[in-house]
Amino acid sequence: GQNIDQPTEMTATEGAIVQINCTYQTSGFNGLFWYQQHAGEAPTFLSYNVLDGLEEKGRFSSFLSRSKGYSYLLLKELQMKDSASYLCAVMDSNYQLIWGAGTKLIIKP
Amino acid sequence: IAGITQAPTSQILAAGRRMTLRCTQDMRHNAMYWYRQDLGLGLRLIHYSNTAGTTGKGEVPDGYSVSRANTDDFPLTLASAVPSQTSVYFCASSEDTNQPQHFGDGTRLSIL
Predict the structure, then answer these.
(1) Which of A5, A60, A74, B98 sits at a 20 to 30 Å CA gap from A104?
(2) Per the CB < 8 Å rule, is B48 touching A48?
């Protein structure tokens, strides 16, 4: 079957760095997406990786290793507004997104 | 402002009733999707449409139907609502099937 695993919850301190991991097993691979979702709101697109390596976008970076079925989202210089759920999703061979349950990130002052 | 509009924002519905959730996008995106989001679970795809005039079944299609008569609109219909369909429903669209998806604000639906 298809499976996306990510931690349920993480806690970090304002100004620090946090890494959210995602492992996946899917039928085919056409890219991995990270989304941010604040409570009660819609998911918003953060990043897309289709080749191995690191993609950097401001304070956020995303890494992919296709051979290991592994990705992480790195958030630097954490701000209180980064408190949200972070969703990992893999596009399978049918170009459909398979979603993880999300990681709730709590930022403490 | 360009984007996706969903209606209603929330709804309480008696079991057995028919309900249509509306979704409209003005970005001229080819692909559109309907998901449900339940606590502790990832987003689950209900139905999708890769282009106007075509639709397909996702992971959890039973009890739901869709139509895509034009590029902009993608309504989701519950023919006879059941309590297990209580959920938050998100409509999304993407320029093409391999592009990032953009989400509407969601419809919170409670079936009693």
Answers:
(1) B98
(2) no
